[in-house]
């Protein structure tokens, strides 16, 4: 069996609840949808859908949905997680 890893994502609670409800109605879970998204991203070597016709403006267009407070909290989180992971194994 392949190694498993945990992904933690901060998001608006209302958005999470709506996504969970949506995927439950589709007969799956939000967690499974994230796994599907990740696999399809790898398969496509990029986003598994066309985000915009003008790729140069993609971030600007999507940034209105971002939560700047959560983005700031997440800054450097990958590096911190890797340091913590390796400190535990030492």
TrEMBL record:
InterPro entries noted in UniProt: Arc_rbn_hlx_hlx, RelB/DinJ
Highest taxon listed in the record's lineage: Bacteria
GO biological process, one term: regulation of DNA-templated transcription
Transmembrane regions listed in the UniProt entry: none
One Pfam match: RelB
Name of the protein described by the UniProt record: Addiction module antitoxin, RelB/DinJ family
Organism: Anaerostipes caccae (strain DSM 14662 / CCUG 47493 / JCM 13470 / NCIMB 13811 / L1-92)
Lineage of the organism: Bacteria, Bacillati, Bacillota, Clostridia, Lachnospirales
